[in-house]
Amino acid sequence: RLSFKQRSSYLTNNIGYDDSVMDPLVRGRDLVGDLYLRTVWTSSSPDGAISMVLGKADNRYRVALSRDGTLTLGVWVKQRRRFDVVAPAACDFVKHIGELQPNQPHAVAMSNVDHQVRFWLDGRMVLEYSPKWTRNDAANFVAVEKKNGQEVPRVYIDVTGAAVLRHVKLMRDIYYTQMRRPDPANPTVTFPGTGCENHPITLKAGQYFALGDNSNYSGDSRYWYTVEPALADLHLPLGVVPQRYLLGKAFMVYWPAGFRISNHVNWALIPNVGRMRFIR
Known about the structure:
The chain is mainly beta. It has 2 domains: 142 residues, Exo-inulinase, domain 1 (Jelly Rolls, Sandwich), CATH 2.60.120; 99 residues, no CATH class. The chain has 2 helices and 20 strands. It has a 6-stranded antiparallel β-sheet, with no helix packed on it. It has a 6-stranded antiparallel β-sheet with strand order 7-10-9-8-2-12, with no helix packed on it. A hairpin with a 2-residue loop joins strand 9 and strand 10. The radius of gyration is 24 Å and the shape is elongated.
């Protein structure tokens, strides 16, 4: 078994740059459960098989593929601590796979994203499953995590028989944080960020909402807690930029600039010329 263990931040919403710009205690570090796993599998055994497992306990699935072309989907049942087989008829679709020849490399991939499971063989999707998922299910899922803390998703690959795995890659989905903004009168008190959970925003014509390129650390519209005095007469919600204040046209990508002189300097002052691009 090849098992991925949570170390450092590779399964969290940390992006890897701008870490020192904002206080991580304000933004939080959240484990991301929407994952994609792929590898190139070469089996030399007649009874060779490979299986992939992705997800947290309440949303964990296993897809198994045998050399004879048998494809099986299993769902983790916490009460019995085992995977139960999902009937093919319950899947959105399961495509027929013929017998796989020995010593031939096959690219296999699995995703568990937005409560939908998919499996690919050599670039072709051969299985898709979308379990029933209600608003109450989502609320219960969040309530359990708030009570028990965040659970590390299980990620592993099992093989049967002699086999070689190459180019193993694990990817996570984009994660949008639920920002909280401080009360200017009392910094120890925070409120939900604009456009976040329990604090939605509706934009009218000619209004814009600024979002940065790093959900965890961007000081964007979700985090703005004052309105510029020049905009007071417009009575705008926090975070809204009127169109008349958007001047000029973007012509160049500059950030992330590159090297930061020291941890005490928030701005990366030394340009990263290799990553700069003109916008056509």
